[in-house]
Amino acid sequence: MRKQLIIVLALILSTSLYSQSDGPLSLKQVNEDSKSGNYKDIFAAFYNLATTNLAGDNKSIEFNSTLFALKSKANPDLLIDYNYEKAGFSRNFQFNFKVDLDSTFSYSGFTGGFTIALINGRDKALADFRKTKLDTLFNVLTTYLDAIQENLTVAIVSNPAIADQDKEFQLLRDAVAEILDNEKENLSTSTNPYTAQILVQLNLMIAARPIKGPSGANITNRDDLVKDMFALIDQYYKVFDSKSLLTISADGSANDEGKFNKASVGMIFLKGNATASNELDLRAKLIYSDTLTTALPRLNFKATAGVNFKLFKGAAEKNFFEVKGALEYSSILKNVLADEKKDNFFANAEIRIRLTDDLWFPFIIKYDIENDNFLGFLNISYNFGGFK
Amino acid sequence: MITISVTVKGGTAPLPIKVFIDNLNDNQYDQKITKDRSFSENFDLPSGKYMIVVSGMNPQGGTTDISVTGAFTVGPRPDSSTTAYKTLYSVLFYGEI
Predict the structure, then answer these.
(1) 3-class DSSP state for residue A54?
(2) Is the pLDDT of residue B18 over 80?
(3) Which of A162, A289, B73, B76 is most enclosed, with most CB atoms within 10 A?
(4) What single string gives the DSSP state of each residue in A147-166?
(5) H or E segment and range at residue A241
(6) In B, which residues are within 8 Å of A83 by CB distance?
(7) What is the strand order of the sheet B17-23 is part of?
(8) First vs last Cα of chain B: how many Å apart?
(9) pLDDT at position A38, please?
(10) Do residues B6 and B39 lie in contact, with contact meaning Cβ atoms separated by under 8 Å?
């Protein structure tokens, strides 16, 4: 019976994974566009959904979501802008739980926790680009497009040879969408007959009254105008990557007997510079553990202060190499073992190499300042939020 | 009377939502309005041929539902409602009142 319940739970979570990926969850988009592995490690769980690992010996079912993602499933109206901006708490409250199973699908433990972003300046879904250069350029473009569409509309409705006006207006609508799409190139070869007509008229209008682009150079055609507008959009969104992020989190674990054996509370603060090329990274964590390893309940405190440098941007403006230098202090506040030191200081260097958009290899070098010891750890970090 | 409804989902619109109600017979009945948030508004328009264009920018990862309904004798063409998925949009409706 227990196995059946677990399989049903896995199916429900898997269904949730796929159904949520269809919805317009803006946070997921934020995650997808995030350019820092450091940021992802902390906040990726905000966008993670359900993941299951039922193949190996140690199986688990894990579910991460925001309160908002769940609430908006029940009430899609929460996604509407005026509701969305009021839902700050639920958008910034993430919870997670994981059920561990052994090789026979028997319950072997449970972990649950939550993270709250007290300060989250990185929510791009609330971006405001009014009264910017982008606003000015978009006004110019839409004014020209309105005039062109007016001419074409009059031509359509006054042409008796056009029998299917719905089809014609759909073509016109599609052509305008192509004009506004920065991914569309060689528009003159579009199969939509209105695209070429709009392009010719638009280029004439822009050339007649050249507009200053962001670089100060004159924009003289549609391609440059749209390219500059999307460059501005990227530039404005990038500023969000450097804004402050302060999270607090707590989690706890229980073993197969239901005994609470581990808990932690933590705080993370990130703040980047204006170009988002480096980032101040402050962390503190208090960990209580009562495991069989020591047979004693232990209380540890750990704090790090460092700076994360994002280096070597690729073609997609995503950095593929990051270095984080940090000082670490750790202290065993309760039940120090005989051969242990109560306090430790480390100098850490963490090197991350991005292999794909969401796959990072972090290599951590830890230097024990007092004992002159080097330690190294190789990890693999995958951001499941990247699944669409 | 016609109703124009614009519903932004998944965040807030980074740029103003612009609506151009263009009376193709007489420019004195043209109207240009801008909105910062989703809205549904009624317009009492005199008889005539109209082009209505709604333009704006979607929130990152968001969408915008646009509908034009009401006492049209023709249209709205090509349909009375649509959803804009791309970053920038400018959506045209044609109708006769």
Answers:
(1) coil
(2) yes
(3) B76
(4) HHHHHHHHHHHT-TT---HH
(5) none
(6) none
(7) B31-35, B17-23, B49-57, B88-96, B74-77
(8) 9
(9) 53
(10) yes
Which contacts qualify for A70-79: CB closer than 8 Å, 24 or more apart? A72/A23, A72/A25, A73/A19, A73/A20, A73/A23, A76/A23, A79/A23, A79/A24, A79/B9, A79/B10, A79/B62
Percent pLDDT > 70 in chain A is: 73
The single-letter code of the amino acid at A24 is P
Token digits of residue A105: 């699908």
Shortest alpha-carbon distance between residue A64 and chain B (Å): 19
> Counting every residue, how long is chain A?
388
At A317, which amino acid appears?
E
Q: Minimal Cα–Cα distance from A244 to chain B, Å?
A: 19
Does A127 contact B at CB distance below 8 Å?
yes
pLDDT in tens, A229-244: 999 999 899 888 888 9
Rounded to two decimals, the pTM is 0.76
ipTM at complex level = 0.94
**SS3 for A137?**
helix
CA distance A238 to A273: 11
B28 backbone dihedrals φ, ψ, rounded to 5°: -65, -15
B31-88 pLDDT per residue, tens: 999 999 999 999 999 999 999 999 999 999 899 999 999 989 998 999 999 999 999 9
